[in-house]
Amino acid sequence: MNETSNFIKTIMKNDLESGVVDHILTRFPPEPNAYLHIGHARAIITNFELAAEFNGKTNLRFDDTNPVKEDTEFVDAILKDIEWLGYHPNIVVYGSSYFDATFEKAVLLIKKGLAFVCDLSQEELAAYRGDAGHAGKESPYRNRSVEENLKLFYEMKDGKYQNGEKTLRAKIDMSSPNINMRDPVLYRIIHINHHQTGNKWCIYPMYDFAHPLQDSFEGITHSLCSLEYEDHRPLYDWVINNCDVAHHPHQYEFGRLGITNTIMSKRYLKQLVDEKLVTGYDDPRMPTLVGLKRRGFTPNAIKNFILSTGLSKINSTIDYAMLEHFLREDLKLIATRPMAILKPLKVVITNYEEGKVEKLPALNNMENPELGSHDIYFSKYLYIEQDDFLEEKPNKHWKRLSVGEEVRLMNAYFIKCNEVVKDENGKITEIHCTYDPLTKSGTGFKDRKPNGTIHFVEATTALNATFNLFEPLILDSVASTENFKERINPNSWLKLEGFVEPFLKDTKPLEKYQFVRNGYFTTDYDSKGDKLIFNRTVNLKSSFTL
């Protein structure tokens, strides 16, 4: 890992040197109830990179202890996301694979007098638990005998009771200042088909009970999780210490990573999809990994961004511009640089031969000649960007085209605007120019200096293209309210119709380009030969600096 602040790396190093452990084994335990987002990427990258730093390994374990919201759709998506990021788990396993062993540990706790079957409803459980300022109240069922608890627990397992009718609870301390230690629920009843075990089980362990046991069963050395689980660690240790396990893992917490103008709540992201406020989980405006991938983000950029932030014991929020910085750094040498016109203005070269189309060479990436070159085209009819023309030059700093001014067309010739054609509403529809054949790029012409350089696309060979331009979906500048939808940016997606070079006729989904002066783009999944679609990944420039 990069040499950034990382206290867990220090812990691992010290544990190895002192002999506390002789190897490193971490795990990434996502619940398969949603698509992964960039916050999950931090957990993935942290676990895999830290383990690799010490020649260790990382397991992928699906935390599938709540079948109500889980689905194989999410399992498949998570597997693809991790592969896309470039990581290969030591093993892929399901928490449900340990249900039999977990059940036996629950039986053990009952036999030790450390767990009991409780008949309180969910509402009663909450009322009995108390709060930060008031101790909880013991359940009236807390003192059931071991024999009765065993009988009831097996009856729960056999399906005798309905959802919510009974729970299995740990017997710890209802007056504990840590609410998580106030006789927490270990098992609840859920009559529903499980995506892995079918109808074998109708009782399911709670995360706080299953997770430490699964870590132990797998031999995890360092169980890494986000900071909100810090006050769950005493319960994690209680389970490990009382379940007679052979291996004692340890939990370590690190701060969550927030990003400006981004929401990473699974509930809110699901709401966006369910209410069709976005096109799906892979909407390019979404912070999901499938969304970032579709927008054109690279695994390397995400990895470098995550590693640069380091790890600490506090939650932090990073400017989205920092993520874009690492994206530009990754794309600038790997993306080819064809020309595209997003807002076309027609140009007629009045002194160029009608019907003639000239081929001119152009490097695919001026900063990386190894990417080769391709032919561009020049003729009597061209397209330039509307923003590259003003009828009158506003000031000396205007380095584009105006009437009476001369500019260089990139990789081609000097052109001079002589006439403007307008419609009945006064809108410019085309401009008439002349070219100077002596100014061809590569000839070394230096007799005069043009008023800047602009890009173009030859009109007769140009391909129609749709360009999707994105702005933040969620605005931090809008005052926070209870309804996050009030922060949704109504102008987060702009579609433009323009043209690209014929060089892009065979473009494939997710191929990366820097459209000259317009930004970095990637080919969308829905792009076809006769309907090219490109998503803008990121603008060319930013004021952000490391």
Write a structural description.
This protein is of the alpha/beta class. The chain has a domain at 340-538: Ribosomal Protein L25, Chain P. It is 25% helix and 24% strand. It contains twelve helices and 26 strands. It has helices at 7-18, 38-53, 72-85, 99-111, 122-129, 146-157, 207-218, 233-242, 266-274, 289-295, 299-309, 320-331, and strands at residues 25-28, 57-62, 92-94, 115-118, 167-170, 185-189, 203-205, 222-226, 250-254, 257-259, 316-318, 340-341, 344-349, 357-363, 373-379, 381-385, 406-409, 414-422, 428-436, 453-454, 457-458, 463-470, 493-500, 512-515, 519-523, 532-538. The protein has a seven-stranded mixed β-sheet with strand order 20-17-18-19-13-16-21, with no helix packed on it. A six-stranded mixed β-sheet has the order 12-23-22-26-25-24. The longest helix is centred in the N-terminal third of the chain and has 16 residues, at 38-53. The protein starts with 6 loop residues before the first helix and ends in an 8-residue tail after the last strand.
How large is the share of residues in beta strands?
15-25%
CATH class of the domain at 340-538: Mainly Beta
In CATH terms, the superfamily of the domain at 340-538 is Ribosomal Protein L25, Chain P
Secondary-structure-based class equals: alpha/beta
**How confident overall, as mean pLDDT?**
95
Here the CATH topology of the domain at 340-538 equals: Ribosomal Protein L25, Chain P
Termini separation (Å)?
18 Å
How much helix is in the residues? 10-25%
Strand order of the largest sheet: 20-17-18-19-13-16-21
Total number of beta strands: 26
State Rg. 31 Å
Shape: elongated
Largest beta sheet, briefly? 7 strands, mixed
Low-confidence stretches: none
Number of helical segments with 4 or more residues: 12
CATH architecture of the domain at 340-538: Beta Barrel
